[in-house]
Amino acid sequence: MQNAATIAREPRSQISPAKQAVAAKSAQILCLAVACLAALILISGWWGDKATLISLIPGAPTMKANTAFVLICSAAAAFLQSSGTDGPVNRSIRPFIRQAAAVLSGLAILICILTLFETLAGIDLGIDQLLAEDRRSLYAPPGRMSEATATSGILAGIALMLTHTASPAALRLRSTLVVTGIVIATLAIYVYVFDVRAILAVPFLSTMSVPTALCFVALFVATVLLEPSRGIGAAFLSDRTSSFIVRQLLLPIVVLPLAVGLIVTSLSDELALATALMAILSTIFLCAVTLGVAKRIDGYDQLQDELNDKSVSLMEQAMEANMAKTRFLATMSHDLRTPLNAIIGFSGAMKSEIYGPIGKPQYREYLEHIHSSGGVLLTTINAILDIAQVEAGVVKREDAPCELRDIVESICVEARNAHASLPAELLNQVPARSPKLIADPVLLRRMIANLVENAIKFTPADGKIVIDSTVNDLGETVIIVRDTGAGFDPDEADRLTEAFEQASEEALVANPDSGMGLGLAIVKNFATLHHAQVGITSQIGHGTKVELVFPPERTERGTA
Q1: Residues with Cβ < 8 Å from 314, sequence gap 6 or more?
Q2: Which among 193, 214, 191 is positioned nearest to 204, based on CA atoms?
Q3: Which residues contact 504 (CB under 8 A, 6 or more apart)?
């Protein structure tokens, strides 16, 4: 019997969790390396007065030295956050690594807040000249990082400080900050790609340079990858269907409006502003729709997971209840069989009058009823024990070559002796030189005997029961028991192989005393132990045919 704990769910992703973790870690390191390297190159450009290192787009705003320093602090904080969680470091120093990451993030936030304060208050605190004197003053006030850059720096720093927090509210805030930062940086890139001068005058878009925007995108992506299984990271990187949809659609959603906008802009400069707005709004709209659909699908996936967990729990409870029932039946049957054997034995001795004649004829009749009823009850108890032992897995198969015709002949003889009235014909048509069957002789005999017993119950006195065997084209040994009895609805065949199941009322009319419905269940369980199949065909009023199909390896070769 299958254990409910081993029931495997169908995987939603072909990538193993270990490979996903390695890929996330590699992408995180790559993003941090890109942001750090670009910032270091630009700082070296400011210190060395190298124009080619300072600006990638001639005439466009450049990344300031303070911006580069903020990016380096943030990237270092992200790297420390990663190392303090799963890196090869001693657990005792991980708190210090976390504290160092918090200090770096706080430093980046402080520089950005002071810069915004300078801009809003119209004063100069000297923050702009912290690392280098500005030699390429392209906008006022000279040398100051833009509002968009300072805002993005604050968002990145706070998001890094909220990493690995257990609070759901902090997790939601972190995801919101990351998404906002990516949107700001992406919009800045769109503005410069379309070269829309009207939008360049808008605060938070006009002065973030392309290198700065790209570095911030890399930094925010690395922040997401710090926790790939939580928050926004789970929306992109988990093995759920929703994450798969987001991963597949995100790149086309970003690239397609951009490509269409560039094509339209190249055809007409007058449409540049409208095209840029169309591309930006289309990207935002499509991203929102995709994330909304993904969230809805994720809700369905979570509901399915909850239902799966409940079904597994219910299945485990059902299996425990079934095992308890099996243990109870086995104990009860064992306790009943001991006194029952005494009843059958003593009643048989009294019926045989071993110690002298019985005084009154009525007593002899009573003893006949006691003895026969005890035999019926013992047969039922033995059947219950068989079911209980099979379900408990204690039945052992001991294979040996079996002569089918001899086994069937002995079963027919016993049936004739046990039943006062039999169908007109009980025929053993197993070929005399049929191949031997490799099976457990005791279990094989029980299977055939149960099938014959069932046929006898439902076949009238003028009917016929035939036991036959053959070897089909596949080399399988097929044992066939067919009768001309009452039959039953073909749709009931599968149900009748379960324990305590009986045929419908139409079939029971032929024999109201049809037992407890254990015969076919025992046959099915014993057949399963031999890796055999049970096939049943029947029709009401036209009899039943049961086939036991044993695999080819159980047919002994050279014995025909």
Answers
A1: none
A2: 191
A3: 488, 489, 492
